[in-house]
Design brief:
mainly alpha, Ribosomal Protein S7
């Protein structure tokens, strides 16, 4: 185990929107290490979102992230030989990373030709409050609500 917690490396903001969350999202989306290609695909997805919704794609993406962000989750805790699912608040940093990972995961599972198409469709769906990533958030909240009886164990 570590003596001290690892330091967080500062992220450089993306070139177009000057937002560190965009860089973070693109880093999660990236496979194989070609960042410029993935950044281009992300910007294409935002352009497609703005065409379909006739709103700013960047604002729709931010709204989608907020809609998918979980407030509570269940964590496993072993007590007296039994494992309980205990509801717990999600740390702010983890909230963002979970919402990004869910958006990316469910966009990859969608139908579409390119990742930009898939991502655009998932962003639009999440902004409306539907789609796989939003359903995952709802399921997480529902599970936490169902296990509220064990909340006195606290993680």
């Amino acid at each position: 185990m570590r003596k001290a917690q690892a330091k967080k490396l500062p992220l450089a903001p993306d070139p177009k929107f000057r937002d560190k969350n965009v860089t973070r999202f693109v880093n999660c989306l990236m496979i194989g290490g070609n960042k410029t290609v993935v950044l281009g695909a992300f910007y294409d997805a935002l352009d497609k979102v703005s065409k379909t919704t006739s709103e700013d794609g960047y604002e729709v993406w931010k709204r989608a992230l907020v809609n998918v962000t979980p407030a509570v989750e269940v964590r496993s805790r072993r007590i007296g030989g039994a494992t309980f699912q205990i509801p717990a608040e999600v740390r702010p940093d983890r909230k963002i990373s979970l919402s990004m990972k869910w958006l990316i995961r469910f966009s990859r599972e969608r139908n579409g030709k390119t990742i930009a198409d898939k991502l655009a469709n998932e962003i639009v769906a999440a902004a409306k409050g539907e789609g796989g990533a939003f359903k995952k958030k709802e399921d997480t909240h529902r599970m936490a609500e169902a296990n509220k009886a064990f909340s006195h164990f606290k993680v």
